[in-house]
Every structure is written in C-alpha cells, then in structure tokens.
C-alpha cells in the first residue's frame, strides 16, 4: 500500500516500546566462524536463554539453556562427540534435546524421559540462525536474500553492533534518514527528502533523496570530486524483522536484528560497496580498506548508540510521556512492529 510522504505531526505509539517479537522468523545469534568444533556458546533471543554447540562433525544444534534434570545452564557443560553433557551430573543430550546417556546408570537401564527443548537452526552467510517460534513454521520462513555475498566485485565489511535499547528504537533509527544532522561532523548526508513510502503487514519500504560530499564519498566511488555535492536516492527496505538499504547500486547494507531483551538489541550487518579500482590494485589493500570502512562505521554507530540509549533511558524514566513524530515512515514501521507482535500472541493463544 502506497502511503503519503508528507511530513506532518503525529503522535508516537508508546506501546511500541513494550512489544515483544514475533518469534516465527529466523534470527541471527552469532558469527558462525566464532563457534569452533567442540565449542558451546550461550545466546539469548528475546529473553529466551539458548545454548548453541558444534559437535565433533561440525554440525550445529540449539537447545534450551536449562538441563531438564536440575535446570543447570547447559552452556556450562561440554561437547562429548555429538552430544552436549550437563556440567552437574554428566547427563548427555543429542541435537534433538533427548537424553541419551547418564554416566552413573548401569548399561542397558532405561533412561528417564528427559528432553531439552530444541530449536531449528541453520548456517548461512557466516551466521548461525535460530527459529525461536513454532518449529513447524520454520520451513515456511525464509532467510534474507543477500546476492552480493561472496561476489568478487563487491567489497564486504561485516559490522556487529550492540545497543542498550528496545529493538523498536533501534529500528526507527535505521528507518530515519532525517537524522543525518547527528553525523554532520563525519561527512554525513544532508537535505533528505522522503519521496516514496509503501507498507504492508510485514514491511515498510521508503525511498529518500539525500545529498552528500567529501573525501569518503569520493573514495567509495559515490561522487566524482570531494568538493562536489552529489544527490542520490537511498532505498530502505524493512522486511520484518530485518533491513536492507541500498544507494543506487553503489552500496548495499544488510542489517539483521537480534532482539535480546526489552532494553538490549544486537545486530549483525554486512556492508557491500563497489570500489572503482582494478582488481590487481584493490586486492593487496582490500583488508586495509575494509578495516578503514569498519572503523568509520563504528564512529557513526557510536553516535547513534549514544542517542538511541538516551531515548531508551528517557522512556524508562517516564513511559507515559507523549512524543510527536513527523516522519510517516516511522509511524508505518511502528504499526508493523505492533501488528507482528499481536499476530504472534494470537497464534500462541489459538
């Protein structure tokens, strides 16, 4: 549905600061190369404590991080072959969560009916993804499509972020191109104009016309001269619960959200850019350039983080304070977040 792009005063839906997630989507929890064979790692998806482990064959599994015997955190245990052993009594669980061994029982004795909750899990794009909702729906839900991944003509920069704020505040920051004012000292964009806005029950698509200039845009091939003002369109696509934004085919950013709690959000992002240099020149400096871009992004993120966390603290201090928004893309985003949460509650109660 196409929406008006007029900037006019609207009341912010404060309820969006209290909503939970719709769990029937895939969420990233850790970079895959950080979980080695035989290692165990605790993760959290919206207050659900989960343990992820990689068995001796390199396969990953996800179980509730609580032993069904005594409730001890299974991430304190260890991998034994293809099983995860609880640190307390050594009960072993397979990838489905079923108890398959108790070391102090005699061979052949029937094991108790003890099972840890298991979660659908998969690896893609050097990320480990978990489906925390109804496992029967996991095959119907798709991971974000990242066609630039492993393409040699794109320089890829992985970017992890961590905010002490509700995911709705973080999502609004990503949708809000008008906050370029915050980044002006970092050669941020200016004169943004919302030129197109569309929304569905699961998505918000916004196009903004922005201007920029400086050394960085020239280095990235976004402009011909550093002192020249260039105007282009940045397209932001929010498909619950993740983002993709692009700058006219010159760059592409995929931002995958991990809501941890009502006051904590993590993100796993990939920034892709086409560098207009011959491959023989680019290849020796590729890592240096990627590190330079990462450090620059970290400066932008640090500025965003301070503002995002300030917004969270103000809300916690007074949840009933009324706020005014003039960007219709933010209002559309809030509607999607609230609707997705309400739909998840409805499914749960069916």
UniProtKB/TrEMBL annotation:
<keyword id="KW-0223">Dioxygenase</keyword>
<dbReference type="Pfam" id="PF00355">
    <property type="entry name" value="Rieske"/>
</dbReference>
<dbReference type="Pfam" id="PF19112">
    <property type="entry name" value="VanA_C"/>
</dbReference>
<dbReference type="InterPro" id="IPR044043">
    <property type="entry name" value="VanA_C_cat"/>
</dbReference>
<dbReference type="InterPro" id="IPR050584">
    <property type="entry name" value="Cholesterol_7-desaturase"/>
</dbReference>
<dbReference type="GO" id="GO:0046872">
    <property type="term" value="F:metal ion binding"/>
</dbReference>
<dbReference type="InterPro" id="IPR036922">
    <property type="entry name" value="Rieske_2Fe-2S_sf"/>
</dbReference>
<dbReference type="InterPro" id="IPR017941">
    <property type="entry name" value="Rieske_2Fe-2S"/>
</dbReference>
<dbReference type="GO" id="GO:0016705">
    <property type="term" value="F:oxidoreductase activity, acting on paired donors, with incorporation or reduction of molecular oxygen"/>
</dbReference>
<keyword id="KW-0479">Metal-binding</keyword>
<dbReference type="GO" id="GO:0051213">
    <property type="term" value="F:dioxygenase activity"/>
</dbReference>
<keyword id="KW-0408">Iron</keyword>
<dbReference type="GO" id="GO:0051537">
    <property type="term" value="F:2 iron, 2 sulfur cluster binding"/>
</dbReference>
<feature type="domain" description="Rieske">
    <location>
        <begin position="26"/>
        <end position="130"/>
    </location>
</feature>
<dbReference type="GO" id="GO:0004497">
    <property type="term" value="F:monooxygenase activity"/>
</dbReference>
<keyword id="KW-0411">Iron-sulfur</keyword>
<keyword id="KW-0001">2Fe-2S</keyword>
<protein>
    <submittedName>
        <fullName>(2Fe-2S)-binding protein</fullName>
    </submittedName>
</protein>
<keyword id="KW-0560">Oxidoreductase</keyword>
């Amino acid at each position: 549905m196409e929406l008006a792009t007029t900037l006019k005063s609207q009341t912010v839906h404060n309820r969006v600061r209290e909503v939970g997630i719709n769990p029937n989507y895939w969420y990233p929890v850790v970079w895959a190369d950080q979980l080695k064979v035989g290692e165990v790692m605790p993760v959290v998806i919206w207050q659900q404590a989960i343990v992820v482990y990689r068995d001796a064959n390199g396969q990953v599994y996800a179980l509730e991080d609580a032993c069904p015997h005594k409730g001890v955190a299974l991430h304190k245990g260890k991998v034994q072959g293809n099983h995860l052993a609880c640190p307390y009594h050594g009960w072993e669980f397979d990838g489905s969560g079923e108890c398959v061994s108790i070391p102090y029982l005699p061979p052949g004795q029937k094991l108790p009916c003890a099972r840890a909750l298991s979660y659908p899990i998969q690896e893609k794009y050097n990320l480990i993804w978990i489906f925390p909702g109804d496992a029967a729906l996991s095959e119907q839900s798709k991971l974000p499509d990242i066609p630039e991944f492993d393409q040699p003509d794109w320089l890829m920069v992985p970017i992890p972020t961590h905010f002490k704020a509700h995911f709705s505040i973080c999502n609004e920051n990503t949708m809000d191109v008008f906050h370029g004012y915050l980044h002006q000292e970092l050669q941020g964009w200016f004169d943004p104009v919302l030129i197109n806005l569309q929304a569905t029950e699961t998505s918000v698509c916004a196009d903004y016309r922005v201007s920029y200039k400086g050394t960085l845009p020239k280095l990235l091939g976004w402009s011909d001269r550093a002192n020249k003002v260039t105007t282009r369109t940045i397209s932001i696509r929010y498909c619950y619960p993740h983002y993709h934004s692009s700058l006219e085919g010159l760059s592409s950013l995929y931002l995958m959200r991990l809501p941890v709690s009502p006051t904590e959000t993590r993100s796993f992002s990939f920034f892709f850019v086409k560098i207009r240099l011959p491959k023989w020149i680019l290849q020796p400096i590729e890592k240096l350039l990627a590190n330079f871009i990462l450090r620059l992004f970290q400066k932008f993120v640090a500025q965003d983080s301070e503002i995002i966390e300030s917004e969270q603290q103000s809300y916690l201090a007074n949840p009933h304070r009324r706020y005014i928004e003039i960007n219709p893309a933010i209002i559309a985003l809030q509607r999607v977040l609230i609707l997705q949460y309400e739909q998840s509650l409805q499914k749960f109660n069916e």
